[in-house]
Design brief:
The chain is mainly α and 162 residues long. Helices cover 55% and strands 0% of the residues.
Length: 162
C-alpha cells in the first residue's frame, strides 16, 4: 500500500516541477517578461532589490528569481508589487510581443521554440535604464529638451517619423 502511494505521488511531483515551464524546461516567457518589467520599474525608481524585498517581506534573492522569471509571481504578490512600484498591475504586461503572448499556458503544449531573449530588449538593458534615470534627474525642462534634441540629432534619422 505504501508502494502504491509513492508511485501515485511520482507523476504529481513531476507535473508540479514542470508547471509554468516550456517543454524544454525553460521559464515561461510570460513570467520572464513580467519579471523584466518588475526590474525595469524598480531600476527606473532607483530602488535596489533589497529595498523591494523589504517592502514585500522577501529576500533580495527571491526578487532576483522573480526578475529572471525563474519563479512565477502569484496574483497577490503582483498586486503588492504594483503598489510598492506605484504602477497598475497591467503595467507588468505592457509591451509584450506576440511571440511572448503565444507562450500563454494554453498554447504551451504546442510551443516548440525557445523563449525570446530579453537581453535584446533595449528597455531592459542597464545602459538604457541608467540613461533614462539620468535624463529624468535633469530638473530644468529646457535643458532636458536640449538633451532630447541632441540625442535625436546624433542618431540616424527615422523616415517613419515624418
Amino acid at each position: 500500500m505504501v508502494q502504491t502511494a509513492r508511485n501515485s505521488a511520482t507523476p504529481a511531483v513531476s507535473r508540479r516541477a514542470s508547471r509554468g515551464r516550456t517543454p524544454s524546461g525553460r521559464p515561461n516567457p510570460i513570467d520572464v517578461h513580467v519579471g523584466a518589467r518588475v526590474r525595469l520599474r524598480r531600476t527606473l525608481l532607483g530602488m535596489s532589490q533589497e529595498k523591494l524585498g523589504e517592502a514585500l517581506g522577501l529576500t533580495f534573492q527571491q526578487v532576483q528569481k522573480y526578475e529572471r522569471g525563474a519563479n512565477r509571481i502569484g496574483a497577490s504578490r503582483l498586486f503588492d508589487m504594483s503598489r510598492v512600484l506605484d504602477v497598475p498591475v497591467s503595467y507588468f504586461y505592457e509591451d509584450m510581443t506576440e511571440e511572448v503572448e503565444a507562450a500563454s499556458p494554453r498554447n504551451m503544449v504546442r510551443a516548440t521554440e525557445d523563449p525570446p531573449q530579453f537581453g535584446e530588449n533595449l528597455m531592459a538593458q542597464r545602459e538604457t535604464l541608467e540613461l533614462v534615470r539620468a535624463y529624468y534627474r535633469i530638473t530644468d525642462p529646457q535643458v532636458r529638451r536640449h538633451v532630447h534634441d541632441l540625442a535625436r540629432a546624433l542618431g540616424p534619422s527615422d523616415e517613419s517619423e515624418k
